[in-house]
Amino acid sequence: MIHPIIIPDLGATGGDVTLEEWQVQPGQEVRAGQMLFVVTTDKASVEVEAFRDGFIRELLAEVGQSLPVGAVVALLADSLDEPLVHPVPDETHQSADLTVQTQAPVPPGQPDSGKRILVSPLARRIAHREGIKLELLDGSGDNGQILKRDVIAALSKKGVEPVRPQPELGSIREGLSPMQRAVAELTQLSKRNAPHFYASITIDMGTALETRRKAVEWADRRGWPTPTITDLCIKAAALSLREFPMLNASFDGEAITTYAEINIGLVVGLEQGMLVPVIQRADQVNLYTLAGITQRLKKMAEGGKLSAGDLGGGTFTISNLGMFGLDSFTAVINPPQIGILALGAVMDKPVVMESSITARPQLNATLSVDHRVVDGITAARFMAAFKEMLENPERLMLDAPQDVPK
Amino acid sequence: MNPLQKEKLLEMYRLMATIRRFEDSLYQLFLQGRVPGTLHQYQGQEAVAVGVCSALQETDIIFSTHRPVGHGIAKGMQLTSIAGELWGKVTGCAGGRSGQMHLTDVEVGMMPSNAIVGANIPIATGAALAFKLRGEERVAVSFFGDGAANTGAFHEGINLAAVKNVPVVFVCENNQFAASTHISLTIKIENIADRAAAYGIPGVIVDGMDVLQVHQAALEAVERARSGGGPTLIETKTYRYKGHSRGDPGKYRSPEELDQWQARDPLPAFREHLLAQGIVENMLVEVEAGIDRAVNEAVRHAENAPEPDPEETYNYVYA
Amino acid sequence: MMPNETTRQMTMAEALRDAMRLAMQADPSVFLLGEDIGVEGGFGGGFTVTLGLAEEFGHERVLDTPISEAAIIGAAVGAAMVGMRPVAEMQYGDFVFAGMDQVVNQAAKMHYMSAGQVRVPVVLRLPVGASRRGAQHAQSTEAYWMHTPGLKVACPSNPYDAKGMLYASIRDENPVIFLEHKLLYGGKGGRKETTSLDPVMQVPEGRYEIPLGSIKVVREGSDVTLLANMLMVYRALTAAERLSEQGIEAEVIDMRCLAPLDMESLGASLEKTNRVVIVEEDNLTGGWGAELAARLGEEYFYYLDAPIKRVAAPDTPAPTALSLELEYLPDAEKIVAAVQSVMGGG
C-alpha cells in the first residue's frame, strides 16, 4: 500500500513552509518516529517524522520549495517493489492526506492543482499595491474569482492601513522575513482593534529576591532548575489570574471567551525578532517545574526549535525587558488575548520607610488590557493582587486548597 | 463680331486649350511616373465643360464627378490649385487630402466633386432647392456621365427636381462608355435625353464636340432654370480620348472608332472657327504660349510644394 | 432651465415638433423634408411629429417628397452645402439604407474632403426600435453612425432631452443622425402605439439647447453602472429598482449622445462602481455596446472588478410575434441577471 507523506499543520501563520532538508532518500527503510525532513515556518525550523514503518519510494518535493499544509512531499510504501499507482487526484477533497498527486506538488498558493487563479484587474491592482499575495486569498466570485472585496477583506483582517512611506535617498529598503511580517501584522492588528489601557504599579522586591536566593540555593544542591525573577513573576501572575479570570480571556470583537486553563506566554527576544513560547497551566506547576519549563522554552526558542505545541494555547502574555535596564515600558497585547504584563528591571531605588529614606529593590510592572472588555478597576485590582503576591512570596509556594480524592 | 463676343470666344478657347494642354502633360508625366494617385482624363470632352460653364454666372455652382479637371478649369479654378491637389500637396485646393476625384473650389462655384457615380444629382437638386427657397437667382448644374443615367440617384434626383421645379440643369456627358462598358449594353434606348420626358422636363440632345452648340443649349437651360421654369436634361454626345482612368489603355474600343471621334476634335475645330471669325493667328499663338507657361508652372509648383503634416489627418472631421 | 420659465406637459413627439417649430421661427434657413410630413389632412410624418408645421410654415419649408430616400438625403446635403439647415425625415429609420450612400459617402465626408470649404449641417431624423411591425421596421442603427467618422449621433430618451437635443442638432454645423424611439413618441388617439411608454413631462416652452456630446446619470448608485439608451433606459431603471431590493445599487446612465462620446463621465462612473453592464436594443455583434465595451475595457481595465457585459438583442433580424419579440428584446429580468452575474465576478 502506498502512503503519502504530507506537510503537517505546524501552526505557521503564513500558511506556506519551506522545505529545508531531506533526511531520507528513496529506497530507504524507515521506522515510525524517524525524522524524514525539515521545514521552516515563520516561527521555527521543524522536523517532521514518519508516522509508520515503511520504505521511502519517491521524493516529490525539492529543497527550497515552498509548500502549503497538506502538500504531498513523498511516497511511503509498505514494500520496496509494489507498483506505485498514482491514483487520479480527486479535486473535491481539499484535505491533503486523501490527495495523491500525479504531478509535482502543488506550487504555492494554488487552491486547486491545475486550475488558474481568477482575479479581476481591479483586485489584482489593489493586491499588488498593498503587497497582498493573491495565492493566499479565497475568491468569493461565482467561479472562485478573487474580487476587490476579497482583497479588501484580507486587508482589514490584517488591519493594514494602505500607506506608502517615502524612503530617503541612500536608505535601503528590504522586505520582511516571515517572522518579522508575522510580528508586524500581529502588533498592528492588536493596536488597531484593541484600545489599550495601561495600569502600572511599583513592587518592592526585597522579600522576593530573598525567596529566590533561597530557592536557587535549594535547587543547586539538588540539581533542579533554578528559578529566576521572571519565573516568580510568571507564577505570581498565573495565581493572580485565578482570582481575575476575566483577564485570562480572549475577545473576538463580539464575545468574550474565558479560558479554562492559565497558559502564560513569555516573550523571548531573538536576533531576528521575537517568539512567545507558552508555559502551559502555569498556575498549577510548582516553581521549580516552572523554571525548568521556561529554561527549556528559551533554549528552544533561541535554537529555532520550538514546536507548534510550544507556541500555541497561550491565554495571557508576559514580557520582561528588565535585563536591558528598562525601568518600565508598555507592551502590545497579543491578540486574541486581552492582557499583557510588561516587567521592568529590578532596581535599587530610594524609598521612605518608617520616616527614613532607604534603598529598596523595586520592580515596575505595567499591565496593558483591552479596554473594550476590561475596565480600569479590574486592571488596578489585578495589579494590586500581583504586587501583593510578589511582596509576600510565600504565597507563590502555598497554593489555595485543591480538591483531593477522598 | 462685337469685341465682347470676341473676348468671350477667345476665353472659351483658352479654357478648352488649357484643359487639353494640362491633361496631355499630366498624361506624359504619368507615363514618366511623376504623377501620384489616379487620373480620369477629359481630353475630347472639353467642349462640354467650357460650353456649359461659360453659360453660367459667377454665383452659379457646378457639381462634377470623378473626372473633374475639365469642369474645374472651365469654372475658373487655378491650375496650381488643381495640380497641387493631384500631387497631394498642401497647395492643393483641399490641402492634398482629397485627390483628383474630389476637386473643390467653392469660391469659384466648383462644389466638391463626387466619386460616387450619380450621387451629385440629388445633391445638385438640393442646392437648387435652397436657391429657390431663398429666392436667389442662382442655378446649380450637375455633370454626370452616361453610366450615371442608370443609377437610382439619377432617377430620384431628377424626379425630385422636376416635381419641386428647382433651378437646376442636368448635363449628361454621354461619351458612350461607362468605364469599359459600351452604352449599348446598358441602356435599351438610343438617347438618354429621352428619359427627360419620364420626369416631365425638357430633354435636349447636342453635339458634344461643338462648343457653340453646347453653349447655346446651356444658355437656354440656364435661362429656363433661372426664370423659374425648372430643370432641363441636356445630353451631349461626346467621346473620351483617353481610357477611363490612368493605366486604362482602352482596349475595349476600336481604333477606328477613336479615329472617327478624333477627326471631330473640338479644339482644332473651334480654333478654325475663331480664325474664320477674324481672330488673328498671333492672338491664338500667344494664348497657347501662355497656356504652356501656365501648365509648366503649375506642374513645377506642385512638384516642389510640401506635403501636408500628418496631423492634418485629424482636421475637418467635425466642423 | 431659467427660473420662471413657462413649461407644459409634452410628449416626445410634441417636444420634437416644438424644437423644429422654434428653430424654423428663429432661422429661415431651417426647413423640413420627408414623406407625408406636411400633407394637408395628413398625419404629420410617420408618427405625428410634424403635424401642424406645414400649416404654420407653408409647404415650401415643410416639403413632402416622393419615396426617394437617396434624393431626400442627397437634397438635404446639397441644400446644406449652400447654407441651409435642412431637417430630413426617414419615415422609418430602416429606410435610410436606401439612401446610405448619401449619408456615409456624402454627408459625412464633404466637410473633410473639401478641407472645410463646405459644411453639411443636416439633421436626419430616424424613427427606430422594435414595435412589432417586422424586421424591416425595427432596427436601431446606432452602430452604423458611430462607425462613420464625421457624423454625430443623438438618441434621447425623454421629451425634455429630445427638444433640447433636436434644437442643438439643428444649430450644429455637422450632420447629425437623430434617433427617435417609436415607443417613446407618445402619440395620441389612433396613432398611439401599443406597448408604448409615452413619457410625458414638463418641458420649457421656450428655446433651449442641450449641446451634443453629453450623457446623463439618471440614477446614482455605487455597485454597478448600467449604460442604456432610448427605450432601454426605462428597462434599466426598472431593473435598478429590482436590484435595489436585493441590496445592489445600480447607477443608470442615459447614453443620449453616442457621438461625440463623453468618455470622461463614463470613466468617473466606472471608477466608482467598478462594474459595467451595457443595455442596448440593437443586435449584439458590432452594436454600440461593443464599441463602448472595447473602449472602456481598454481605458479603464484596472478599475474593473468583473468583465463588461452587454444585454442586447440576439444576432437575428427582429421577429414580430409577441413571444418571439419578448425573447428578442432586452428587458429588466435579463438586465438583473446580467448584473447578478457581474456582481459575482462575471
What's a quick, concise take on this entry?
The complex is a heterotrimer of chains A (406), B (319) and C (346). Chain B contains 11 helices and 7 strands.
Describe the structure.
The complex is a heterotrimer of chains A (406), B (319) and C (346). With 406 residues, chain A is of the alpha+beta class. Chain A is 27% helix and 24% strand. In chain A, the strands form 5 sheets. In chain A, strands 9-18-17-16-12-15 form a 6-stranded mixed sheet. In chain A, strands 1-8-6-3 form a 4-stranded antiparallel sheet, with no helix packed on it. In chain A, helix 1 (121-130) packs parallel to helix 2 (148-158). Chain A is globular. The model of chain A is unreliable at 87-113 (pLDDT under 50). With 346 residues, chain C is an alpha/beta fold. In chain C, 60% of the residues are buried. Chain C is built from 12 helices and 14 strands. Chain C folds into 2 domains: 9-204, Rossmann fold (3-Layer(aba) Sandwich); 216-343, Rossmann fold. The interface between B and C is large, with 45 and 48 residues.
SSE arrangement:
The complex is a heterotrimer of chains A (406), B (319) and C (346).
Chain A: E1 2-6, E2 17-22, E3 29-30, E4 35-40, E5 45-49, E6 54-59, E7 66-67, E8 72-77, H1 121-130, H2 148-158, H3 178-193, E9 196-204, H4 206-222, H5 229-243, E10 249-251, E11 256-258, E12 264-266, E13 268-270, E14 273-275, E15 278-279, H6 287-303, H7 308-311, E16 316-320, E17 339-353, E18 356-370, H8 376-391, H9 394-397
Parallel strand pairs in A: 12-16, 16-17
Antiparallel strand pairs in A: 1-8, 2-4, 2-7, 3-6, 4-5, 6-8, 9-18, 10-11, 12-15, 13-14, 17-18
Chain B: H1 3-31, H2 46-53, E1 61-63, H3 69-75, H4 79-86, H5 120-134, E2 140-145, H6 152-164, E3 168-174, E4 177-178, E5 181-182, H7 196-199, E6 203-207, H8 211-226, E7 232-237, H9 255-262, H10 266-276, H11 281-304
Parallel strand pairs in B: 1-2, 2-3, 3-7, 6-7
Antiparallel strand pairs in B: 4-5
Helix pairs in contact in B: 1-2, 1-3, 1-10, 1-11, 2-3, 2-8, 4-11, 5-6
Chain C: E1 7-10, H1 12-26, E2 30-34, H2 53-57, E3 62-64, H3 69-81, E4 85-89, H4 100-107, H5 110-113, E5 123-128, H6 142-146, E6 152-154, H7 159-171, E7 176-181, E8 201-204, E9 216-219, E10 224-228, H8 231-245, E11 250-254, E12 257-259, H9 263-273, E13 276-283, H10 288-299, E14 309-313, H11 322-328, H12 332-343
Parallel strand pairs in C: 2-3, 2-4, 4-5, 5-7, 6-7, 10-11, 10-13, 13-14
Antiparallel strand pairs in C: 1-8, 6-12, 9-11
